[in-house]
Write a structure and sequence with these properties.
The protein has nine helices and 20 strands. With about 450 residues, the protein is α/β, with parallel strands linked by helices. The protein has a ten-stranded mixed sheet with strand order 2-1-5-8-10-12-14-16-18-20. Strands 3, 4, 6, 7, 9, 11, 13, 15, 17 and 19 form a ten-stranded mixed sheet that branches. Helix 8 (about 395-410) packs antiparallel against helix 9 (about 420-430). The longest helix is centred in the C-terminal third of the chain and has 17 residues, at about 395-410.
Amino acid sequence: MAIDARAPGLTRQSVDDLADAQQEPDWLRARRRAAWDVYEATPNPERTDEEWRRTDLRWLQWESLTPAAPLDGVAGVPATVPTAALDPSVTLVMSAAGAHVVDVSPEARSAGVVALDLAEAAQTRPELVRDNLSTTAVAPEQGKFQALNAALWQGGALVHVPRGAALAQPILVVASGDAALRQPHLLASLGEGAQASIVEWWADTGAGSPVLVNGATELFAASGAHLTYAHVQALALDARSVLSQRAVVSRDATLASTNVTVGGRFHKARVEATLVEPGANAVLNGAFRLGSRQFVDHHTTQDHLATDGTSDLLFAGVLDGRARSVYAGTIVVDPAAQRTNAYQNNRNLLLSSGTRADSIPRLEIMADDVRCTHGATTSTLEPSHLYYLCSRGLTHAQARELIVEGYFEAVLDRVPHEGVRDVLREALTGPAAGNDGATGI
């Protein structure tokens, strides 16, 4: 069913009720109302739209959705999140009740890290929120889902690492809760010269799958900052989710982002990096492992607006059962972005005959002094490789798993933080990955 913006479950009154419940400042209430106006005015996604051409939204029964109760119980960290393995410097949990800090290490306290519920931060630290929230990164005008999140996000979190601070251990932000409609919103920023790793984990509570998770992540790396970011979608296998994620990278700053998808029946992610000042650098990684009838659609953009920027993208997927994936990536080079160096690569490994992987790379080059290339490969298991491993004493299942694990190493090697890298590897090789227990779309 197509989305109906006039559905009674979600209304302008829902926006005001949410702002009242969270005692939000006038500027934030006005911003939510403006986003709602954009939402109502934005046409529904259709198969005739290029971004949605290969993505089926007929499952979406919009009229059955209602905003989560603002006083929904505070969610804890689900047992499925590898908190001990990450040993985070800060742990936050986002739910409909708001974001709450579970733990802060002495390292993070001494560095002056700010970790707050986003609605609270809008009141107490507006200088860290007002200019960046739903403005230049994930703005309502970008689409229907982006406008809905900007109008009705609930349980958002602010993470800010101040100028010159350096954290050895990652910051963990968990999005969880029991609400049928979850709309997490992460706003994270690094000051000049700061260094930090952030892991955002969409987790299942086991108390019932959400009808829809519609999340937004806005990342800002100031001049000379180094940000390692990872997003893990590990929802229940009958959940559906939409992610809008954009990083804004400033002069001589470095972003290394990794998106891992192993859960959910349906996941659509828009992953973007905008290099806004000279010398900005972005490494974009993606890895997904699907089984049964799982579906994932990644749309990526490497957007170069300034000179001497570099971006390098590698997305790799393994599909089994009757899983399907769509990857569409675009490198955009502004006329002013001379001496840009950009690369994009999508790889897919099909483990059974019922799978399908679509790959659509694009280049939009408007400068003449650039080096921009792209590539895409889709392959199946090589019988000789399986035979060789089995001849060395492995079972067929063990041999196949070993090949799959090795397939992801090209992506994992690009994750700068060793602890984050190990956790992502485990997520891709754990028992839930490729589970054939999910039902069809």
